[in-house]
Write a structure and sequence with these properties.
The complex is a heterodimer of chains A (about 550) and B (about 180).
Chain A (H helix, E strand, L loop, with lengths): L2 H12 L3 E7 L3 E6 L4 H11 L3 E10 H4 L1 E10 L4 E10 L4 E3 L9 H11 L2 E3 L48 E5 L11 E7 L2 E8 L7 H7 L6 H6 L7 H15 L5 H29 L3 H22 L8 E2 L2 E2 L5 H24 L4 H7 L7 H6 L4 H5 L7 H4 L20 H25 L18 E8 L2 E9 L5 E7 L1 H6 L2 H5 L7 H6 L11 E5 L4 E5 L1 H10 L1
Parallel strand pairs in A: 2-5, 6-7
Antiparallel strand pairs in A: 1-2, 3-4, 4-5, 8-9, 8-16, 9-10, 11-12, 13-14, 14-15, 16-17
Chain B lengths: L1 H10 L5 E6 L5 H8 L13 E2 L8 E5 L2 E2 L3 H10 L5 E5 H6 L9 E3 L9 E3 L6 H11 L9 H11 L28
The chains are: A alpha+beta (about 550), B alpha/beta (about 180).
Bound molecules: iron/sulfur cluster (SF4).
């Protein structure tokens, strides 16, 4: 089904409730609806049509029409379709019905829209603050246009986030904000009964840096890619690429084919690098440091290669609107194939070793379970989804850059546990190496940068998604005045995946929590300590890092 | 130079145990920190070891701009490190806020909250740069910054809110620091 025909079917179904239906190409659909029927439309898209919820976004458009624009994004992966549902709400009384009761995956993003632009989701089951610091004033919304990007309100030190009460009879294990497996500091409250986890609560966003605000208020179109790349220091290229694609699409800029191939190659190089890194960290989490040392040793020549190609080991600085800044010239092809050949050889050895290692398997098998229907409900992405039998991969479902001309496999496993997520990544790395080889062979000659004549007009919009090592990265750009977007919305895959943590850890032993969390997105901030409060007796027991480590390594 | 060397040798005659913290970083710096621990760079040969608890650490490695939400946790973290302690800011963000410096949710570089002893700029700094910084801290390599720079550090340290008992903030450039050093190589 094309965007046009899907739009028509929506029009038939909802009639006057749809104010505007606009298809952009065959794969993007924009509809504007009466805000009152948002829940109905979302329910239909999500529950009847089986669309995946991606993210929502709040935009302050009071300067244009006195309203706030709330946009919910959905994807129909089988049909290669992205759908944006716009609803405009009154600027003086910003409220909208919450869709979380019918679309559970919208939970966080609705809370975020409340925090950032102040549009309250009515009927939201958990309307606590999500993004802003605990001591941030209640009625100051940083993404509103009348709020300065550099505003630093006074701190009021005594406020803390309201906590979710544990289930009757359960104890609470607070973990964090410094925690061994997450990239960012994060605070989990794990509810346990004895050793078994029965639930969890989460407070994150310690790393909120105001990326979207800076992009929409101080930076220009071509400065944003460099900031976008610093959203994530492991897979930043996906962000700059996705952002550039969104702007290019909105403005109708044709990217030269060679630039698309360069982007594809760098995206896959980044995937190999990231999966190597991840496997090492997963090894470290379960106390198998040899894996860490070996995979990082394997990874290092790839970092040198990136430096040779892009001038930097990690933040590549390659993407600009219209193409890339550096070519992958013939003289590095040899280097690339050499490095890849070496990694492939060593990776195959690992590939054979890991599934046969009884200790590893004992730790990974059957832990961190995320059943397929839960994975769909929570709209998780990337290897986390593919490990639960959800066969989605943006490279195949919504091809971008040069992927439609290359042979890309979807690596899917359906055991829904930590093993599946390891195996998905093991396969994917080999597949990525293969894609790079294909792309190097097929790469056409030609320019790497489009000629961009005029300024990008305001008021255009486009969506773009990229398959990052951790899942789908999604960007939406609404073009604006002064050579910068009016709104730039970013969704990283972890945003969706983190919301699955309570499901994944429930039923597992406490000692499995780190690898459960680590199985979709790891890092090296280290545990402060854990505090176990036995509610029944009121006794507080403090575990040190070493005890916790011993606990999880002895398992 | 001499002063730092003496300080380090006196305070940390044996191996340095480091605790790494992310205060809002994009992970670029964090990953390079891990990189120096892995076989190619192998910082453990200098006796440097990453530990899992601030209570075991001599040195705090700070990566990333300090976000508003992390401030209380960061202060507690610093207090948990036993004295004498060193703080090394790794990356442009930790050194001064980086590209986020004027964002609403960013307080600034690490030195807005903690007394920082060494700065290793770069976005992210190369593993070699991190190694060099640590080698300077250990007195194994020559420092490459000018007197002015050290003075700046001291001026900033005076406005620190967290109490510091390492004595590190009383650092005064010794006479052996030549008047005209190149700012960097
Ligand atoms: S200095 Fe650069 S790499 Fe390091 S945390 Fe900041 S943006 Fe990331």
């Amino acid at each position: 089904m094309t965007a046009q025909s899907f739009g028509d079917s929506l029009k038939n179904k909802f009639g006057d409730k749809l104010l505007e239906v606009e298809a952009a190409g065959v794969d993007q659909l924009y509809v504007r609806i009466v805000p009152e029927c948002l829940v109905e439309v979302a329910d239909y898209l999500y529950n009847d049509e089986g669309c995946r919820f991606v993210i929502n976004s709040g935009t302050d458009r009071r300067e244009h029409n006195g309203k706030f624009l709330i946009t919910h994004f959905f994807a129909q992966d089988e049909e290669n379709l992205y759908i944006a549902v716009h609803a405009e709400v009154d600027g003086n009384d910003p409220r909208i019905d919450s869709i979380t009761p019918v679309v559970p995956a919208a939970n966080w993003s609705e809370r975020e829209a409340r925090d950032m632009v102040g549009v309250a989701p009515e009927g939201h089951p958990d309307p606590r603050r999500l993004v802003l610091a605990d001591d941030w004033p209640e009625d100051l919304y940083p993404l509103r246009t009348d709020v300065e990007h550099g505003i630093k309100p006074e701190s009021c030190p005594d406020v803390a986030m309201p906590l979710v009460e544990p289930p009757e009879g359960a104890s609470v294990v607070p973990i964090g904000p410094y925690f061994p497996v997450l990239e960012e500091p994060a605070y989990f409250r794990i509810f346990v009964e004895g050793e078994t986890v029965v639930g969890a609560d989460y407070r994150g966003f310690y790393n909120h840096r105001g990326v979207e605000k800076l992009g929409c208020s101080v930076l220009t179109y071509n400065q944003i890619p460099f900031m976008a790349e610093r959203i994530c220091g492991i897979c930043g290229f996906v962000h700059s690429c996705s952002y550039c694609q969104a702007v290019e699409r909105a403005a109708g800029i044709e990217v030269p084919e060679r630039a698309e191939y360069v982007r594809t190659i760098m995206l896959e190089v980044e995937r190999v690098q990231s999966h190597l890194l991840w496997l090492g960290i997963a090894g470290h989490i379960i106390g198998f440091d040899t894996v860490l040392m070996q995979t990082w040793r394997m990874r290092e020549p790839l970092m040198w290669l990136c430096e040779r190609i892009t001038g930097n080991r990690k933040t590549y600085g390659m993407n600009l609107i219209g193409g890339v800044r550096r070519d992958i010239t013939a003289d590095v092809h040899g280097d690339i194939t050499d490095v890849l050949a070496k990694i492939e050889k060593e990776w195959r050895a690992l590939y054979d070793a890991i599934p046969g290692d009884p200790t590893l398997m004992a730790r990974l098998k059957g832990t961190g379970e995320l059943p397929e229907e839960k994975a769909r409900e929570l709209a998780v992405a990337g290897p986390t989804a593919r490990g639960s039998g959800v066969a989605i991969d943006v490279r195949v479902d919504h091809p971008y850059a040069a992927y439609d001309r290359l042979d890309v496999k979807k690596c899917v496993y359906d055991s829904c546990d930590n093993v599946a997520r390891v195996l998905v990544r093991l396969d994917e790395t080999l597949d990525a190496i293969d894609i790079i080889r294909q792309a190097l062979d097929d790469m056409p000659d030609g320019p790497i940068m489009a000629e961009i004549g005029e300024e990008i007009p305001a008021g255009l919009e486009a969506m773009s998604a990229v398959e990052a090592p951790r899942g789908e990265v999604f960007h939406w750009v609404l073009t604006g005045e002064e050579n910068r977007p009016e709104r730039w919305r970013v969704r990283a895959p972890t945003y969706a995946n983190l919301q699955a943590v309570p499901t994944m850890v429930t039923g597992d032993a406490l000692a499995d929590v780190p690898i459960d969390v680590g199985s979709f997105d790891p890092c090296f901030s280290c545990t402060e300590r854990m505090e176990v409060t036995d509610l029944k007796s009121g006794i507080i027991r403090v575990y040190t890092q070493d005890e916790v480590l011993a606990l999880r390594q002895s398992k | 130079m001499g002063f730092f060397k003496n300080l380090c040798n006196k305070a940390f005659p044996k191996s340095l145990w480091v605790y790494h913290t992310n205060t809002g970083a994009c992970n670029g710096c964090d990953i390079e920190v891990i990189d120096v621990l892995t076989p190619y760079y192998d910082v453990e040969r200098f006796g440097i070891k990453l530990v899992g608890s601030p209570r075991h650490a001599d040195v705090l490695l700070v990566c990333g701009p300090v976000t508003r939400q992390i401030v209380p946790a960061l202060k507690r973290l610093y207090e948990a490190v036993p004295a004498p302690k060193l703080v090394i800011a790794i990356g442009s963000c930790a050194s001064g806020g980086g590209i986020w410096f004027d964002s609403y949710n960013i307080v600034g570089g690490a030195d807005t909250i903690l007394p920082v002893d060494y700065y290793i700029p770069g976005c992210p700094p190369r593993p070699e740069a991190i190694l060099h910084g640590v080698a300077v801290a250990l007195g194994l390599a020559e420092k490459k910054v000018a007197r002015e720079h050290i003075k700046q550090l001291i001026d900033r340290n005076e406005s620190i809110s967290v109490e510091d008992d390492t004595g590190a903030e009383e650092v005064v450039p010794g006479d052996e620091v030549p008047a005209e050093l190149p700012t960097s190589k």
